[in-house]
Amino acid sequence: MAASSVNRAINPTAVQVATGLYNTAPISASGKSVTFTTTVAEYLTKKSLTSLPLNGTAFYDLQFIFMITLDNGDTIIPLETRVRPSA
């Protein structure tokens, strides 16, 4: 899984590398759903930030992109997921 520290383009190649990923451990799924949990503190640490980036008076969206590996070994990289922190 990869993450962007500023509201900028993040693309599928971001998760196809061996280093610099936000999370390298598999995230278990059950059936058709999965839950990924992180904290602002963890995000700041992993992105080497001291505070969330601001766009004027609002926070930038935090962007995550996942690579999903199916049981048969095929991989799917869906569109990015955006999280908008609130003050």
Describe this structure in words.
- With 87 residues, the chain is mainly β.
- It is 8% helix and 21% strand.
- It contains one helix and seven strands; from the N terminus they run E-H-E-E-E-E-E-E.
- It has a three-stranded antiparallel sheet, with no helix packed on it.
- The protein starts with a strand and ends with a strand.
Helix/strand layout:
Elements: E1 2-4, H1 40-46, E2 54-55, E3 58-59, E4 62-65, E5 68-69, E6 75-76, E7 81-83
Give the strand order of the largest sheet, numbering strands 1, 2, ... along the chain. 1-4-7
The proportion of strand residues reads 15-25%
- Rough outline: elongated
Percentage of residues in helical conformation: under 10%
Number of strands: 7
In this structure, how is the largest beta sheet organized? 3 strands, antiparallel
Helix/strand/pairing category: mainly beta
**Low-pLDDT residue intervals, each spanning 5 or more residues:** none
What gap, in angstroms, lies between the N and C termini?
25 Å
